[in-house]
Amino acid sequence: MRVLALVPGGMDEQLRFFPAINQIKSTFEQADLAVVADPSAKDIYRLSKLVSTVIPYSFQSQNSPADWANLLGSMRDREFEVVITLTQSWSMGLLLWLSGVPTRVGYASSANNLFLTDTVPLKPEQPVAHQYQDLLQLINVAAPIPPLEINVPQSDITTIDALRQGNNLTEGYVLIYPGTTPNGESYEVAGWVTILKDFQQRQPNLPVVLAKTADSAAAIAAIERQIPGITILEPENPGQMAALVAGANLLVTVNSYPLYLATALKVYTVGLFAQEEPEKLLLTAGDEASRTLAIASSDGTLSTISPDLILKKIWNEA
Fold first, then answer.
1. Of the given ranges (33-42, 229-238, 289-298), which has the lowest mean pLDDT?
2. Is residue 78 part of a domain?
3. Of 32, 65, 79, 183, which is the most exposed, with the fewest CB atoms less than 10 Å away?
4. d(CA 277, CA 274)
């Protein structure tokens, strides 16, 4: 059986869908799974052995008729039997209808109710895992969504191991990711500097590392001006980021894809959330939940989370 999933959003949203992919494969062992993902997020699938094909498509941009037609052609060429969509737009509903895929399932909307074969109400008050479980029941996948798991390529582990050794990080470190949330919000540089200096003062022998990506580069440049000589490592892909996270004693990050990597890798994490509700997004249970500490903003902006609050949570102070 050939199954296609349309998953809009960034790498964090793709990772949150990984457990659903695992559950489909567990139910239909012979299934050939493909995903349509935004070009900026497609590389996250190097961490999944279950997805055979990733089709790039920009859900958020104004796509040309050629882009739309190319996606339709890709779907027809591969002769998918089932398509699962997280979209609710008229353009995607029409495209799926024209694709000829016999089983088309998604969340109920005016478009999906017309163009899909089966829909289920989206219940935004539920955790994401429960939302996906409702959706998968439409294709007879009835078991609960499992915890998040990833597979880190050995080549990425080897590259990061060499990078760690070259920076004397063989005995552990605290990893800081001052990137942006899915809404494009970042935590203030002054707050990161306060946190970093506190770590240096309390634990002078424990290295603190900044993880640099395109989203965190500007903040790191500003931090480096105030804390010269701080260690900065730049993973080149999500697999290398996962390997970097795996070696950390603690990750401190905004709500972003490294947080979900840490969840899968069972790394202790402090996550900063702005408008998002962590209890709905975090795919944690049992021991995994105890390793992830979410700090939510009181007014929907990261700036109102004080460094003192974050440090008290980290050091378990009243």
1. 289-298
2. yes
3. 65
4. 8
Q: Which helix (H) or strand (E) holds 43?
A: none
* Alpha-carbon gap, residue 234 to 217, rounded angstroms: 9
pLDDT digits (tens, 9 = 90+) for 92-122: 999 999 999 999 999 999 999 999 999 999 9
Closest-CA residue to 87 (of 74, 70, 68): 68
310 shares a domain with 261:
yes
- Assign residue 249 the CATH number of its domain: 3.40.50.2000
- The pair of three-digit structure tokens given for residue 149, joined into one six-digit string: 């798991």
Domain final residue pick, 106, 139, 172: 139
Question: Quick one: which of 318, 271, 263, 267 has its CA closest to 294?
Answer: 271
Structure-block tokens of residue 86: 């997280």
- Is the pLDDT assigned to residue 71 strictly greater than 60? yes
Q: Are residues 167 and 278 in the same domain?
A: yes
Transcribe 261-317 into DSSP letters: HHHHHT--EEEEESSS-HHHH----THHHHHEEEEE-SSS-GGGS-HHHHHHHHTT-
306 shares a domain with 181: yes
**Neighbouring residues of 162: CB distance < 8 A, sequence distance ≥ 6:** none
Query: In degrees, to the nearest 5, what angle opens at C-alpha 27 toward C-alphas 139 and 20?
Result: 70
Q: Which residues contact 167 (CB under 8 A, 6 or more apart)?
A: 207, 209, 231, 233
Residues 256 and 181: beta-carbon distance below 8 Å: yes
Q: Quote the number of domains for the chain.
A: 2
- Dist CA 225 CA 222 (whole Å): 5
Q: Round to whole Å and give the CA distance between 313 and 286.
A: 20
Assign 107 to helix, strand or coil.
strand
- What contacts 53, CB < 8 A, 6 or more positions away? 34, 35, 78
Residue 64 and residue 72 in contact, taking contact as beta carbons nearer than 8 Å: no
